[in-house]
Amino acid sequence: MNLKWNSKMLNAFYEIKKIDKNFKKIFDDFGLPENRAIEKNFESIVKIIIGQQISTNVAKKIYEKLDKNKMLSEQVLSKSSIKDLKNFGLSTQKSFYIKNLATLSLNKQLDVSSLDKLSSDKITEVLLPIKGIGQWTINNFKLFALQDVNAWPSADLALQEAMKILLNLIKRPSQSEMENLGQNWEPYRGAAALFLWHFYNKNKLKSSKL
After folding, report:
1. Cβ–Cβ < 8 Å for 147, 8
2. 0.90 cut: is pTM over it?
3. pLDDT digit string (tens) for 70-93?
């Protein structure tokens, strides 16, 4: 199923351009952020956990390998050993996190399909106690799966690097500094984050061609 940014997110892209001229410049130079919407389901949380603290390309390969081998269902993951999961390139920790998540979902202790019915704060309250799920994972799920226009993954290194380049800062801003900077863009911080990633990726591509 090919998902797209919904009307709320598309509207947020245009609203954030009115709030901050930096985003208008990114739009003028590179257009709208590329579509990266994902399903609001169990597999999407697994995908985001896989992507923690590793490159996008490596995470993509691991996820595709698991998918190809039909490993991504709650039933299969819950029965798989840590050793089995590590054979796909996962770390011991991530293997445990994903296996535990699958067990919680199977036992009805977590209903991912109902998360979109909850408030943003309540979603955090439900997910944060689960091992391996922190604010970065939660905000990425809110942003890409639930299309929450105000989700703000302030701990993301690429987002911090984009901010450094955009604002001509001497060093990459910390998570707390990112939280402060993000206040300028509420209630459209999610749209801002997507523009910043878009800007970062285009700059990286341009640098690689030099």
Report:
1. yes
2. yes
3. 999 999 999 999 999 999 999 999
